[in-house]
Amino acid sequence: MDAPQNLEYFPTLSEDGRKMLEFLREHPAAPIYRNQSGNRLLAEEVESLRHFEREVRAAKVGWPCNGLPDWLEDFVATTWQEVPYYRALGSQPRRFADIPTVRRADLAADIARFVPDSVAIDRLINFRTTGTSGNPLLIASHPLVAGRYLAFHKRALARFGIELKHGRGQVGVVLLGVQKKCFTYVSVTPLMDESGLAKINLHPDDWRQPDDRVTYLEALAPEVIAGDPISFAEILNLPVKLQSRALLSVGMMLSAGLRAKLEERFACPVLDLYSLNEVGPVGVFDVAAGGHVLLQNRLFIEILDPEGQPVATGERGEITLTGGFNFCLPLLRYRTGDYAALAFGSDAPVLIGLAGRQPVRFRTTNGDWINNIDVTHALKPLPLAQYGLHQNADSSLVLRLGHNSLAQAEAAHGLLKPLFGDLQLQVEAITGEDKILQYTSDLEHGAKSTTSFRCRDSRGYGVP
Amino acid sequence: MERPGPQLEHLTHRLAETPPDFLDEPKIGNTGTVFVPALVNDLLYRLGGRAPADVLERFRGREAKADRNRLSLSMIAVWLLADEWFAGEPFAQADVLRVLDETASELAAATPARKFVEDPDRREELARVALSRLGLRPAGETEAQATDRLSALSGTERRRLLEASRAAEARARAIREALIKKQAEESADKWTRE
Question: Shortest CB distance from A36 goes to which of B25, B28, B186?
Answer without folding.
Answer: B186
